[in-house]
Amino acid sequence: MDNQNDLKYYAKVHSIESFGTVDGPGIRFVLFLQGCSLECKYCHNRDTWDINGGKYKSLDEIFDKILKYKNYILPSGGGITVTGGEPLLQVKFLIELFIKLKKVGINTCIDTSGMVALTDDIKKLISLTDLFLLDIKHINDEKCKELTGFSNKLEINFAKYLSDNNKSIWIRQVIIPGITNDTNDLIELKNFISELKTVEKVELLPYHSMGKYKWQKLGLKYELENTPDATSEDIENAKKILGI
Fold this sequence. Notes:
This protein is of the alpha/beta class. It is built from 10 helices and 8 strands. The chain has helices spanning 4-9, 59-67, 70-73, 91-103, 120-127, 141-148, 153-164, 183-195, 212-217, 232-242; strands at residues 10-20, 28-33, 55-58, 79-83, 107-112, 131-135, 168-175, 199-206. An 8-stranded mixed β-sheet has the order 3-1-2-4-5-6-7-8. Helix 4 links the parallel strand 4 and strand 5. The longest helix has 13 residues, at 91-103.
């Protein structure tokens, strides 16, 4: 299933959460799409990477399912959040879904690394999206390559494009002891965030190793085996440096 029409009307789905409360404002219908091109060492959804995993679901099936929860979503100030994996890998499908959602007044949100080229399709999807939960993998480019396998240049450009086009952003940073909580890196992150005009919130997510079993289940080595979980003190220290 790989011609252009199929990509518009079918999505590779990992799972669905009907009443999400942590991925954007209000009650959210959370759609987890399958597939990710990054190789984040701390990923707690390792089973979402393989684009050949998950199940195909049609545009109408997903849209109709979302509509069933409309009476819960709208009064709460909620909407739909699409996450993954990396949802922007299925951009053609999301354009069609978000066009339908906008017609019925449902708020649209994407949880993404932003590590994609700004193609015409991506720009069109951005125009249809109300809120971006933007995961800054690492503000230091070399450390980002070490942590995820990729440079952070695309996500930095993505963030600037969102800001320039007046798109609401929640910045998310996973605090990983010894990796993302360096004082100089956090100061650099603070300076970068200050350059963006549309950041409404900065969320610090404590690293935890609870997803390690998914790596083991797939027969893979978990490279952060000796990295401790982030403590509340780690989070508070980072908040102070970021001024949040």
